[in-house]
Design brief:
Layout: H1 4-10, H2 31-49, H3 72-81
């Protein structure tokens, strides 16, 4: 696997994201998908801390009813390109 120990370290999740389970490593994910999963996890955690729904990346079929959200455009794009994050 490319990415070496740093990528494997980054690949350990503290909470599940889509099909990415806690403790699973990046060995099974390409680097771009891994960085996207980290971004999704980071934003969902921020949403929870702010008292909002942790819905980033969960726009079913790219549809979201929160167009004023700061993350709207990025969220819809991720939801369309990587639907496994909808869960």
């Amino acid at each position: 696997m490319s990415g070496g120990p740093v990528m494997r370290t980054l690949g350990v999740a503290s909470s599940g994201v889509g099909n990415f389970k806690p403790g699973e490593t990046a060995d099974v994910f390409p680097p771009v998908a891994m960085l996207t999963m980290l971004r999704v996890s980071e934003i969902r955690e921020k949403q929870r801390r702010e008292g909002n729904f942790d819905c980033f990346g969960k726009a079913y079929a790219g549809c979201c009813d929160q167009p004023l959200c700061s993350y709207y455009a990025e969220c819809v794009e991720i939801s369309k390109s990587m639907p496994e994050f909808e869960g």
